[in-house]
Amino acid sequence: MKKKVFSVMATAALATFIATGTAKAASEYVVKQNDTLWKIASQHKLTVDELKELNGLKTDDIKIDQKLIVDKNASTKPPQSSKQTINNSDKQNIHQSVSVQKQTSSTNSFKPVTKPDNPVSLSTSAEKVLQSAAEISLPLIDTPYLWAGVTPEGFDCSGFIYYVFINAGLDLPRLDTIGMYTNSFTVDEPVPGDLVFFENTYRSGISHAGIYLGEGQFIHAGTKKVEIAALDAVYWKDKFVGYKRFNQLQTYK
Asked: What residues are annotated to the active site?
């Protein structure tokens, strides 16, 4: 009964969020102060890759007063520019609750959606660790890549995950990507904070990992910096292996 009530509440909140976004949707959007591609894409139910493709953008840089196409059915045209630029490096804070909440104009944070019907039960403590991991990861956007790095001075992909989960309260040894894959179990219905794994990137087999944020997005230490990417992006979708969760969380009290 508790799950059903939660599901109804989550669905109602999500429906309110979608309705609000739809009312504001238009074929064009004018970039405002503190906007980022991620924020604009989320508001118009697009992925960052879709937004860039609609506007012929090669980088994540956008500019104040720049007009962006935000309607998939609209004909594409070159984006307009102005003198002042905004870089996607703006740090975003994430605040997630168990119930799905509406994103308001007073915050720029992304609120990943937790799916309440996950068949793998989560203890309150394990759920808290996963939520904390998602929250901790976002302010680390744009941290530079550093081979074997495990601090905000620089991360590699496994070092980034290690740092995030240690600070989220999980007693985790320093593992490489394969070690993390071995030390985790598969989940069919992921929640923000779960792991995503990829194969055949810079080497054959399991070779890269990130942290799921919800809605098909994940955060990871890429080749240059910590960044958010879409699982259905051209590069990642053919290399995606699946969602997993650290073994420690299976019995976490």
From this structure: 157, 208, 220
